[in-house]
Every structure is written in C-alpha cells, then in structure tokens.
Predict the 3D structure of the following.
Amino acid sequence: METMDSVLETLNAILWHDTVVFVLLGTGILFTFWSGFCQWRSLTHGWAVIRGRYDDPNDPGAINHFQALSTALSATVGLGNIGGVALAIALGGPGAVFWMWVVGVFGMSIKLTEVTLSMLYRNTDDPDNPHGGPMWVVSKGLRRSFPRLAPLGTIIGGIFCVTLLISAITGGNMFQAWNVGQITETYFGVPGVVSGIILATVVGMVIIGGIKRIGAVAGRLVPAMCLLYLLGGSYVLIVNVDQIPGIFVLIVTSAFTASEATGAFIGGTAAFAFLIGMKRALFSNEAGQGSAPIAHAAAKTNEPVREGVVAGLEPFIDTLVVCTFTALVILSTGIWNRPAEVHFDTPPAVESAGEQRWTLASTEAPELPRASGDWTQGQNVFVIVEAHENVQSGNSLHRIDGSVRIEDDGAVFIDWGTLRSPQAPELQDGGIYFVYVGATLTAKAFDSVVDGLGMWLITIAAWLFAISTIISWSYYGEQGIIYLMGKGAVLPYKLGYCALIIVATLGFIQTDAQLDNFTGVGTGVMLIANVPIMLFFGYQAMRAYRNYINRLRDGRLGPGHAAPSVEDLISGRDVR
C-alpha cells in the first residue's frame, strides 16, 4: 500500500500542478466574460426550463430537462458534498471553502459551455437513446471542420473515454463506496465489506435498466436526499447561529493568509488552501471534467443551449448551496480543530525505521474517557509531531498515523506508521487524536450538537448520496465503453463496476491523505483530457449561446405550454 501511495502522490503532483489549476480557473473566467455572465441566465431562465415549461415529447432524447439535471446532480451532489468538504477543511483549513465558492461560480460557465458543445454534437441516430459527451464533440467536430484530422479526433475521443473510466472507477464509485463502508462500520459495527455487497446489489438493480430507469430514480432521489440533508444542517446552524458571521470572516481571511494549527488541524498555507479547495470543488461539482454532458445529452430538446443553461445550475446547487451547508456545520461545531481524545500516560519513544524514516515504539493505549467509548480493533488514530518544515501547513508540524491492536487477553496497543524526515520528530503535545475521514468527520460535527444526529442523518444521507452518485457514474462509464468497444461490452462493464464497489470496502484506504490522492487522480486525468477539447471548440458554444439568448429576448422562444404537475415532471410523464 505504501508503494501505491507514493505512485498516487507523484501522479497527483503532476495532474494538480499549479499551472493546471490556473488554466482551469482561467477557462471559467474566459467563458464567464465571453458569454456575458451566463450565470445569470442559468439562475433565471434555467429554473423555468427545469420546471417543464419548455418540455416537448416530440424532441429527440430519452428524459426531460428536470430528470437530466437530476441525473447529473445525482453524480455531483454526493459524498463529495459530505466527505469531500470535510476533507478540504481537514487538510486545507477554512480558506479552502472560499476557493470552493470561486470554482462554483466560474464552474457554472464551464458547465454551460461543455454541455452546450455536447448537445451540438450528440448522436441521435436512436432518438430514444442518444449518446453525447466530449468524445463525440472531438470526433465529430474534427471530422466536420477538418476532415483530414478525423482519425485524430477518434483517437482523442478514445483517450477521453479512458480517463472517463478511471474517474468513474475511483471518484464515482470507490470513493463513494468506501465512505459508506467507513461510516456504517464506525457507527453500527457493520463490516465495510457487508455494506459494499448491499450497495453493489442495489446499484446493480438500478443500472441494469439503463438511462430511463436511472433518470426516474434520480428524479425522486436527488430532491429527497437534498431536502433531508439541508433540514438537518439547518438545525445545527440554528443552534450555532451566533458563530456564523465569524465563520464567514474566517473563511475569507484564511483564503489569503496561513491558517494556524489548533487541535487536530496542523495548519495550512493560503496556497495549499487554494489547491485543496479547487481540487475538492472540482471533484464535487465536476466542472470541466466532461462527465455531466453525458447525462445531459439524454435530455429531450431540439435547442442545445437550453440544456447548457440548465447545466449551469449544477455548480450553484452543488457547491454554493450544499457544500456551503456542510462547511458551516463543520466549522461552527469546531470538529475540524477538536482537542485530542486522550493523552499518553508515558509518551512513546521515537525510533528509526530506515533511512530518513521515523516511527514510534508500539504503545499500550491509555484508557479512554467514558464519552469516547472503547478502543476497537483496527481503529485509526494519529499524533502530531514536530520535524522538518511542512510546506503545506506552513510550519514544522506533521502527523504520524497509528492503528489499534487488541490482544487476545484484552490488552490494547497502538502500532505506528512512519514519517519521512531528515530529522528525528518530537511529539508535540502527547495527544492521541481519532481519525475521522470524509463523511465520518461531518457526522461527528452533527453528533456534537445532538447526540446520535450524525449517526442517523449522515449514515442515511451517505447511503442515498452514494447510491445516486454511483448509478450516474456507471452510466458515464457505460457511454465510454460504448464509444471504445461497442454495446456488447456493456454487461461485462456493469458487472465489473459493481464488483469494484465491494473491493473499495475491503479496507485498503485508511487515511484522508490516501483518500485525497486516490480521488485526485480520477478527477485530474479527466480535466487534462477535456479542457483542451472545450477550449478548441468553445467558440461554437458561445456562438450558439448568443444566438439562443437573442431569440429568447426577442420572444421567439417563449414557453410552449404551462408547467406540468410536479408528479408528471418528476416521473417524466410530461414527455411521454
């Protein structure tokens, strides 16, 4: 596992180089100004479209605008909103939230552009089962504009599909399953693999029905799970309402200055907060990845830009609403910089573990306070040490992770991992901190307000969010498989995809740093593959957008009918 961690760290360093992040942010700024701040159109006209006033059963496509948005949101509004935000704050501090907001705003223009392009080039040979996405944009676009480059377009489209499958397997599948297994085992003692088997079974029953069943499930599941989560978050924020103004100030100031180390948080520089905030927001709302266009391509419409305007709502709902709720809950409860759960009776000795590697002597665990419960086999903990300069935290603090081992006679020991450093580390305060990774950290924040609230609310939300995300990403990967190998490979792909849900819960991911590295690779490879496609063909999306807005202003694109009933909208009966 240590070798895999090193490989993933190296890949992340390449994929998430500062240049890549700035290019993506610049892409959002470019299309924001080029479109004349299209965010406003998404927030106004977009709501009218998803309400069904422009739905037409005679248009090509399989699902209505609301179901297309719900399907795309079911992929984005997931454990990235619960676990990803917690990860961003745990690693980058409060300032990471500010940069998540920035990505959310500019991500709206990126989503509009990439979805519009996908709609312009989608394959509607079978009107009830359309195919779309960046792979079709680059292959059909080059064939149409530069016929001699048609083979190159096919190759680039294939490369994008490979990155799509990597992201579907890691962030869209295994990240979700791992979080579900982790939080269910933490609270209920259910082995992670059991959760994985149940999750794989449920997902398999949905994805076997294709995009229409996925759209129908997402249309009901996404609104329900968002409402449930926001209601629970609202209660926590009401309890801590006096802290909220100060939290917003903390978020903004921490975005531009280093965050000091307090409790479990070892500190974070402004630059690291920027990088982590950008990465986690992009993982959550998927702006620039090219995944959402695949879901939106199934929408019934003969106006490509109309679906692009709808897609612009995704980063707003995902990042500026749901992610902000999670961030405020975590920051207002103080769980991110909590004190140590217990302290050593006698601090363990620092030992050499090889060249420039250090560890702690295997330690008998001190007795826990009654409020912290009992030690459990394999429980993950960490200590904070001082060693060489840490460029991410802006100080000399580091973490050494440990794992609890319970002997047959009931004796409890902690076995420690290693730290690479040119100098011997020193324990900072002798405190032992529990590892709360991803969704578990968010759940603990809810629990700190009402005992048991996090246990039930976040566990239920984690299951619902994971199911919705995994089924949508299965469809994304399916479209990549169809492009690469044809429809005959779809069934083996679905079986393998469900099997990986179980694999993710077998326990090979244990820390938040491992989780960040694992999901970062999937997001990064898609961005590098998709952003050049979007920049090369973006002028076509902007030309189509301006044409559509001009017709909308002139009254040539008024709604064709009154809004359908909510039930017809959610079920998709209005377009049957």
